[in-house]
Specification:
single chain, about 220 residues, mainly beta, Immunoglobulin-like, 2 domains, five-stranded antiparallel β-sheet, membrane
Length: about 220
């Protein structure tokens, strides 16, 4: 295992330095379609592109090297000594991931499907035990989601940036993702009857769920 890990790290860092490798940051396609990703290696002309796939919370997995190689799912081609292309055929929900060309920021592939249930966003209040202390936490749970979304909090309609802890997206057996985010507040604030709102934004996806003191309501918003 250690040998494999070291070899992977070496491959990922072999062309680091001042060279700039460019990829499109986000690509969204529907289930069953073909996803095409381009990569420009800049001034690197003596090294073919290496493609890696990484799902949220996972480690990079080797996909293909160079040009002219293919598998039932992946095909690689090149247009010049520095321009390479990765083609993913008949994409499925499980193909949603970040695809790296060499080492840089990668392309986030988001596979959408009408067969998947709509995402659900729910806010849970602090426990009664927590409310006996000085601080308490609200939890926002996003389920049946896509992997690359942003979760944020508002208190009384104003954005907050402190006291927030958001987990990495976790893939479920049905190929959807689950994300949780907590907001730690002063117990005295909870007793002031404020409205706490959790927002999720992503590719063609906008959700809100709000909670006020000891009762809450769920309001999905699609845009």
């Amino acid at each position: 295992m250690l040998v494999t890990l070291c070899a992977l790290i070496t491959a990922l860092t072999c062309v680091s330095g001042v060279t700039v490798v460019t990829q499109k940051p986000v690509l969204s396609v529907s289930k069953g379609e073909t996803a095409t990703m381009d990569c420009n290696l800049g001034t690197v002309t003596d090294s073919a592109a290496r493609w890696y796939k990484q799902i949220p919370g996972g480690v990079p997995q080797y996909v293909l090297y160079g040009s002219g190689f293919s598998s039932p799912k992946f095909t690689s081609t090149h247009q010049s000594t520095s321009d390479y292309r990765l083609i993913i055929s008949n994409v499925e929900e499980g193909d949603s991931a970040v695809y790296y060309c060499q080492t840089w920021d990668g392309t986030k592939l988001i596979v959408t499907s009408s067969s998947l249930p709509p995402p659900v966003l729910t806010v849970f209040p602090p426990s009664s035990a927590e409310l006996q202390s000085d601080t308490a936490s609200l939890v926002c749970l996003s389920s049946q989601s896509v992997p690359f979304v942003d979760v944020s909090w508002l208190v009384a309609g104003s954005p907050v940036s402190s006291g927030i802890s958001t987990s990495t997206a976790v893939q479920r057996p049905d190929q959807t993702y689950q994300i949780s985010s907590s907001l730690t507040i002063q117990t005295s604030d909870w007793n002031m009857n404020k409205v706490y709102t959790c927002k999720q934004t992503g590719q063609n996806q906008h959700l809100k769920s709000a909670l006020q003191s000891f009762w809450y309501f769920f309001v999905p918003v699609y845009m």
